[in-house]
Specification:
Blueprint lengths: L7 E4 L7 E8 L5 E6 L6 E4 H7 E5 L7
Antiparallel strand pairs: 1-2, 1-5, 2-3, 3-4
């Protein structure tokens, strides 16, 4: 899965429904995404491995570097 800035992520687990908007994707020192709740709120970080395992991309975003 390619996670890009602006993408909307939806948690696959129904018991904790969460929709997060990707604000930035970073690859150093470890690959992670900066995300915030889709309705706005506090920004946090999620490892890209966790994003790939626990979320699906609901809508696209901007290409990295675009």
């Amino acid at each position: 899965m390619q996670v890009t800035r602006g993408a909307l992520l939806v948690r696959l687990d129904d018991k904790d429904p969460a929709m997060l908007r990707v604000k930035a994707v970073r690859h150093s020192p470890v690959p992670y995404a900066e995300v915030e709740p889709a309705g706005g709120g506090r920004r946090s970080t999620v490892l890209l491995a966790e994003v790939e395992r626990e979320f699906r991309v609901e809508s696209g975003g901007l290409p990295i570097g675009g």
